[in-house]
Specification:
319 residues, alpha/beta, 12 strands, 20% strand, elongated
C-alpha cells in the first residue's frame, strides 16, 4: 500500500469523525493525533489488517470509546451501514446465527431461559425474538443470558423488553449530534404473542463480553427495577454507531449518539453495567437458576404445581 493511498484512507476516517462523531471536541483531538501518527510513519509498511488495528488503538486512545473502530473485512464492504444490512451476505449471516437467539428453553422447575448473542435489525429478528419470548411466557421466572451478546439494534432491544413489562415504559434516551436532539426509547404498545409480563422475576446474566445492545438490555432492565443482573461487569460501550466505507476492505464505525438513563442521565460508557449479584461469569447461570428455583418453590406445590415443585427440588439438588 503506497503512502498516498494510506494518507487518503486516514483522511477519510477523519472526514467521517468530523462529520458524525457525537463528541466534536474529541473528533478534533483525534484529527490531530491521526495526522501526527501518519506523518511519523506509524502506519507505513502495514497490511490492511494491521493498519486497522493500529488506527483503532489510536482512535480509542483519547476517550476509550470502544465503538470507534477501523475494521478490516475479507469481503468488500458496503457503502454504508444501511446498504450492509440490506446485503444478502448480512442476511445469511443473521440467519445462520438464528437472528441472535442462540438458545431458548423451559428449564426444570418452569424457569425460562433465553440466550441472545446479537440484536439483529428488527426486520430480520422479530420472528425469532417473538418465538423465543412466546415459549418462555408461561414460565414462573426468566434467565436472560447476554454474556455473549455483542450488541446490535436498539429497536430490537425495545421489542424484546416489551415482552417483559405490562405497560409502555420509557427506559432510555439518546442524545444525537445531528440536529442536537434527544430521542426517547419506549417499549412497544403491542407485541405478537403472549408476554412474560411485568411482575414475574428476571435475572440477566452478564460478563466481560457483554457489549453495546446487550448492555442496553442489562442496564435498562436493571434501572427499571425489572431485573437483577448476575455475573461480571460488562464491557462498557453506550454509544450507538454507524458504519462508513473507507476503502474496498475497510470501514470505520463512528458513534452518532450517546445513550443514558432518562431519570439520572447516567449510562454504562467506559464502566460497564455493574452486577447486582457479582459472581464469575461462568457461575452466573447456576447462581441465577438457583434463585429462580427457590422462587418457584415459594409459589407452593398444591394441585397442578406439584410437578413443577418436584422438578425445582430435583434441579436444586443437581446444582
Amino acid at each position: 500500500m503506497g503512502s498516498q493511498a494510506r494518507a487518503a484512507q486516514v483522511e477519510e476516517v477523519i472526514r467521517r469523525l468530523d462529520a458524525h462523531y457525537v463528541f466534536p471536541d474529541v473528533a478534533t483531538k483525534l484529527t490531530k493525533l491521526l495526522r501526527a501518527r501518519l506523518d511519523e510513519g506509524a502506519y507505513a509498511d502495514l497490511g490492511d489488517a494491521e493498519f486497522a488495528t493500529a488506527v483503532t488503538a489510536d482512535l480509542q486512545s483519547v476517550n476509550d470509546d470502544k465503538h470507534l473502530r477501523l475494521r478490516h473485512h475479507v469481503d468488500p464492504v458496503a457503502e454504508d451501514g444501511d446498504a450492509q444490512h440490506a446485503s444478502e451476505n448480512f442476511r445469511q449471516a443473521a440467519e445462520l446465527e438464528n437472528f441472535g437467539i442462540a438458545s431458548v428453553r423451559r428449564l426444570l422447575g418452569n424457569v425460562g431461559y433465553v440466550d441472545t448473542t446479537m440484536l439483529y435489525p428488527l426486520a430480520f429478528a422479530a420472528s425469532a425474538v417473538s418465538a423465543a419470548m412466546t415459549l418462555v411466557a408461561p414460565t414462573d421466572a426468566l434467565l436472560l443470558d447476554v454474556r455473549h451478546n455483542r450488541g446490535g439494534d436498539p429497536e430490537t432491544s425495545a421489542f424484546l423488553q416489551s415482552y417483559l413489562v405490562d405497560e409502555r415504559t420509557h427506559y432510555l434516551d439518546f442524545y444525537e449530534r445531528e440536529g442536537d436532539r434527544v430521542s426517547q426509547m419506549w417499549t412497544l404498545p403491542y407485541v405478537p404473542g403472549p408476554k412474560f409480563g411485568g411482575t414475574k422475576p428476571i435475572w440477566v446474566l452478564t460478563g466481560p463480553a457483554t457489549f453495546s445492545g446487550g448492555e442496553d438490555l442489562a442496564f435498562s432492565l436493571q434501572r427499571q427495577g425489572r431485573a437483577k443482573t448476575v455475573g461480571e461487569p460488562t464491557r462498557g460501550g453506550a454509544h450507538p454507531c454507524e458504519q462508513y466505507k473507507v476503502d474496498t476492505y475497510l470501514d470505520v464505525t463512528v458513534p452518532l449518539a450517546r445513550s443514558y438513563d432518562p431519570k439520572t442521565g447516567e449510562n454504562w460508557e467506559g464502566v460497564g453495567v455493574s452486577p447486582d449479584l457479582p459472581v464469575a461469569a461462568d457461575k452466573a447461570f447456576d447462581t441465577a437458576y438457583a434463585l429462580a428455583l427457590r422462587h418457584v418453590l415459594e409459589l407452593g406445590d398444591a394441585g397442578p404445581r406439584r410437578l413443577v415443585a418436584d422438578e425445582a427440588r430435583k434441579a436444586l439438588d443437581q446444582l
